Amino acid sequence: MNSLKRSLLGMTLTELKAVAKEIGMPAFTGGQMAKWIYEHHVKSIDEMTNISKGNRIKLEEKYTIGCAEPTDAQHSKDGTIKYLFPTDNGKFVESVYIPDNDRATLCVSSQVGCKMNCMFCQTGKQGFEGNLDAKDILNQIYSLPESDKLTNIVFMGQGEPMDNLDNVLRATEILTADYGWAWSPKRITVSSVGVKNKLQRFIEESECHLAISLHTAIPEQRAELMPAQKGMGIEEIVELLKNYDFSHQRRLSFEYIVFGGVNDSTTHAREIVKLLKGLNCRINLIRFHKIPNIPLHSAEEKKMEEFRDYLTNHGLFTTIRASRGQDIFAACGLLSTSKKNGNTINEE
Description:
By secondary structure, the protein is α/β, with parallel strands linked by helices. Helices cover 32% and strands 19% of the residues. The protein has twelve helices and 14 strands. A hairpin with a 5-residue loop joins strand 4 (81-86) and strand 5. Helix 1 packs across helix 2 and helix 5 (134-142) packs across helix 6. Residues 343-348 have low confidence and may be disordered.
């Protein structure tokens, strides 16, 4: 990609119209460009055949589509595929394609690395290397070989979406706008550990589903597992969420990785019930994918089922998420860390 040229991917309709005007084309050409990019997913400006050859040449002098194919892929025997995408600044981010019967979900990244440094996350061990712009977020969908099969997108890859909120909101606007992908926001879920001032803004400016990383309802323990607890505590997050209506189409969920002997006791389940009382939400229990040099392990299946049953019996809709891609660098950040280090990671 020529870094001197600006990318059209990631531009809103208003911005594409401004590009058309700058080149000396009528404003409606911006709408034509949007259609070629977001509906037809063209790879080059020359494919925009209802724009004159002369205007395409002028456009190509300053602009490029901005898409980039994945540089690596790990295929799981269960059909899950983890892709590695390049960014403009020479970094790499991961996306995971998860087919499941008539559904196909893509887990996308919003940052290179992450500031949050959660104990159980490989991405946090990389440190923070930068925000993805809307183009690099959308490219994970645009250049995905299976993009036409997607039914859902989850912002649960590398990075904290609320720490890159402007670009995440721009990306989700383009995904849901009539001129863009025209997806329902109910097909998109954005995850967060909870970031002060940003979480409220996301709830008010977006209609996408929201997933909160919980992992324990005990504040002191959550601070040990997730330093972000000190910035915006789980009690403050829940109090904020109680101000909004999640009883209709918009869904609120809590992600809970179950660590054996750490957060899987009846006491932990009881604290969750107490914390989330009166909140219309669901809980997703997640098996821990082992990462190197971390003294945490997944809970036994029986323990997870008992935990789920306790929460369900106390009025909280709870599911155990099916574990996918365990044979292919399943945990977030492992593939890009391997690429960064130029070697293979041993997950044992």
